[in-house]
Specification:
Layout lengths: L1 E3 L4 E14 L1 E5 L3 E2 L3 E14 L4 E11 L6 E2 L6 E4 L6 E7 L9 E11 L5 E13 L22
Antiparallel strand pairs: 1-2, 2-11, 3-10, 4-10, 5-9, 5-11, 6-7, 6-8, 6-10
């Protein structure tokens, strides 16, 4: 999905496919390349709960990688947590600026459930990465052509 603007384009990339997660599970999403993006937001959409949990959390753990293979939690501790009794549906967001080693070229959404009580509780989840402020990579367009670059003249 793409949302063009005058000089900026945003793209929504899937990371965690829509699914129903068990009470105690972890899902690591697909790798998303972010090296040409000024703005990166990892998002976890939480849907309905089933099985009547009486406690627990659902955690979005932002992960980064220099190569799309070796993954680390951003800054070793960054996360966004929802409680079992939050009003659902709910959206958790994490703005990725970079970790201790700077901005890495790949990110992914990781989600962990820790639901307790009830009868086999589950939650519906999906995770995406919103890429914004894409830098134009490649041959520069001629003035008046799409996409325009900042500072170039715009002609009718």
């Amino acid at each position: 999905m793409s949302f063009p603007d005058l000089f900026v384009e945003s793209i929504l990339k899937p990371s965690v496919a829509p699914q129903q997660m068990a009470a105690s599970a972890t899902v690591n999403g697909a790798s998303v390349a972010v090296e040409n993006c000024e703005s990166v937001v990892l998002q976890l959409d939480l849907g309905s709960l089933a099985g009547g949990p009486t406690g627990g959390t659902i955690t979005l753990t932002p992960q980064e990688s220099p190569d799309g293979v070796n993954w680390n939690q951003v800054n070793g501790t960054d996360s966004v947590v929802a409680n079992y009794n939050d009003t659902l549906p709910e959206v958790l967001r994490y703005r990725y600026i970079g970790g201790a080693n700077g901005k890495q070229p790949y990110v992914r959404v990781s989600v962990t459930t820790a639901l307790t009580g009830g009868t086999s509780p589950t939650i519906n989840v999906s995770g995406t990465v919103l890429l914004g402020g894409l830098r134009f990579a490649g041959k520069q367009p001629t003035a008046g052509a799409y996409p325009q670059t900042p500072g170039s003249s715009i002609t009718n």
